[in-house]
Amino acid sequence: MAQLIGVSADIALLLDEAGVVQEVSMSRSDWAALDCRSWVGRPWLDTFAEDSLPKLPEMLAAKAGEALRWRHINHTSQMPGGSDVPLQYVAVPLVEEGMSLVLGRDMLVVASLQQRLMDAQQSMERDYMRLRHMEARYRILFETSGEPVLVVDVASQRVMEANPAAQAWVKDAGKRLVGREVNECFESQHRDALQALLRMAQATGRAEIGRARFMGTSQDSALSVSVFRQEGGAQFLIRLLPNAGALSDAQPDAQGWFSEAMERSPMGLLVTDRQGSVVAANAELVSLVGATSLAQLQGQAMERWLSRGSVDWGVLQTNIRQTGSVRGFATELRTMAGTQVAVEISALTLTGPQALYGFFVRDVGRQRLPDAPIESGMAGSVAQLAQLVGRMPMKDIVGETSDMIERMCIQAALQLTHNNRASAAEMLGLSRQSLYVKLRRYDMAGSSEAE
To answer: Are residues 286 and 315 in the same domain?
Structure first.
């Protein structure tokens, strides 16, 4: 019986009719927060959290032969500042002895999973609300724009959406644009030019400007065609301008929309000079570093907000100068409160009268970045390690794995810093001497010097 109880429950208690603990048996010895051994001779109710007090009389009132019912009980922690410990109990009445056998199961793992599920649901709700707000803003802008706009599916070339301004160009109100092929929306003699413009926009990925005549109109229109991607696939965004003058008139409005989009973007935007001093930033970046206004950032060095300071700034600056842009540089941002925020930075050189850099900062939060693609040499090492299973003890295989990971991290740090060993050592959290020792250990010192 004792063995059966030991495998079916994490804790077993024997209570008398008054609810006083007579015996305690535990299958775990790491419940220091409960101090179960001290329960013997005490009323079991004294160990309950306040929210669980009404449940004990109901448990002890169960009669023999009735269906057993599990109940969730929270125990107060015996550790200073500790949180309540959740367990699940069922009481089995022992009529002849006049006692009750209480079996308990550990609920810490379940409670942890429930908390993680709740956090994930709340995160999804926040993302869903953010997407709905963005969709609502897009819909309002699309419907109220005075410029005719068509959204066309790339694969079928059918009009998926048309705003009221575009529908107003059709003289016959009964002819709806949505669902029609885009060729049918233009005069027959201009359809070849339209198709050439669509192919050019799809090939280059940039906005292309051309001319065509919309059906039922007497003059050509300037067309701006660009390609964007959604879940359903690629789509064309076609803007119609009545004449060439309208194109020049529309540019200031487009610039205003673009500036507003950058200012209100959910991705942080930061502009610095070539020395790294902050010139401008949007509201998202100001919020990300925990500042209250842009004035707190202007004139400050960007490296002040990077977790590795001058090392991160040196890597970014070197790559921008050599390649003109940086994509997906993973680091952490230091906020004004002193906390670290995981971010991903993309950067480019801005063209204009001033020499400036633009940085796009994306908060990755708890999301994990996708694993870097494994090079052929590394893939071979992993395959070789897998073949060692059964031939060598696991301890030796794990040692081989740690050496492989160390070598990979050192190679990545040297590539990011362009073989600057001092910066690489700081990025890896090592002293320069330790880095040299590891380079010699993995026969990388000679190759690095050659490079």
So the answer is: yes
Nearest Cα neighbor of 41 from 58, 59, 21 is 21
Task: Count Cβ atoms within 10 A of the Cβ of residue 248 and give its class: 0-12 exposed, 13-18 middle, 19 or more buried.
Answer: exposed
The three-state secondary structure class of 109 is: helix
Q: Which amino acid is at 135?
A: E
**Residue 240: is it exposed, middle or buried by C-beta count within 10 angstroms (0-12/13-18/19+)?**
buried
Q: Mind listing the pLDDT tens digit for each residue in 244-300? A: 444 444 444 556 677 777 787 888 898 998 888 998 888 888 888 888 888 888 888
**Residues 312 and 215 reside in one and the same domain:** no
Q: What is the CATH number of the domain that holds 194?
A: 3.30.450.20
Please state at what angle helix 421-428 crosses helix 432-441, rounded to 10 degrees: 100
Specify the residue for token string 């010139």: 279
> Does 128 map to a domain?
no
Task: Identify the domain boundary among 336, 363, 390.
Answer: 363
Q: Are 288 and 207 part of one and the same domain?
A: no
**E-strand stretches of 335-410:** 340-350, 356-363
Which amino acid type is present at position 308? R
Could you tell me if 223 and 211 are in contact, meaning their C-beta atoms sit under 8 angstroms apart?
yes
Give residue-wise pLDDT tens across range 134-176. 888 888 888 887 788 888 888 888 888 888 888 877 766 567 8
Tokens of 180: 């029609």
- The boundaries of the domain holding residue 39 are 2-106
Sign of CA dihedral 113, 117, 122, 126: positive
